[in-house]
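User: Some background: our group keeps a shared notebook of sequences we're curious about, and every so often someone picks one and asks for a predicted structure to add to the entry. Today it's my turn. The entry only has the sequence so far, pasted here. Could you supply the structure so I can complete it?
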Amino acid sequence: MKPYKDSRPNQIVIMTILLTCLMSSQCSAQLLSGPRSGGRGSERLITEPGPASRAGVPDWNIDNDFTDDIFTFVRIMYSGRGWGGRGGSWRTDFPNADLNFSYRLEQLTSMIVDPEGGTINLLDDKLYDYPFIFIIDPRTLSFKDNEAKALRRYLMNGGFLMVDDFWGTTMKRDFLSEMEKVFPNKKPISLELSHPIFNAVFPMKIKPQVPSEDSAERNKGRGVYETYEDEIINRYGEGPAPADYLAILDDNERIMVLICHNTDLSDGWEEEGKSQWFFSRFSESLSYPMGINIVYYALTH
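Assistant: Of course. Here's the predicted structure to add to the notebook entry:
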């Protein structure tokens, strides 16, 4: 297995340009021009690593002179209790969330972004080519010993993992139990709103809590219930509860793992076109700004 490419060619330069762009009057006046209309990414069942069908999501070309500087949003295909590697929780919101977020990064920033994104498993040597990876809805996740070892090596050598879309105490307990296989001696800490990751590009006034679009619509105008996932209330009898962002740090206090608990940022990406209300309430004001903050932090630390 080849070592992780910790140098990250020119990404810090790219992200510095990104910061300048995003804080300009044009970008700060209005994050987005409105929800993207038209087709969405295909929801076909993906069982092998590779690109997704775009099915109407805008595409763009990559200059061959900058192929070494591309940022790719990489989703981890994980095995899970009762699901295995064929479909299941790892593909929640896929590929729409990945394609839309990549499109918005390309649209709003000076980053060179892979229009396809990617899917990969933890045992693939190509994992070490990517500084940022993403795990979603880990309710059924179960690391094998070799997967835990591979993830630990990746993270200890400079990689960054974002985990999103899981709710309540039961899912939290189960996921943190799996992370103990990766880091037996490291405990996650809850990040305060003053942490730089919440202000890396867009200053967040709250810890963003984004529910699924259908839950938000069902609970519109119901205060704290509007932002909490009602499936968790109905199935587990838990909530509502605030969003929490937990981090597992390396010995230099760099965030290796960001755990976005009691929130579903990626649904704000996936479902941005469902309604103007959901776009304005969650996608534009919470999901995209926090997502960009996380990517910026990951690539500059």
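Suggested note for the entry: The chain has a mean pLDDT of 84. The chain is about 35% helix and 10% strand.
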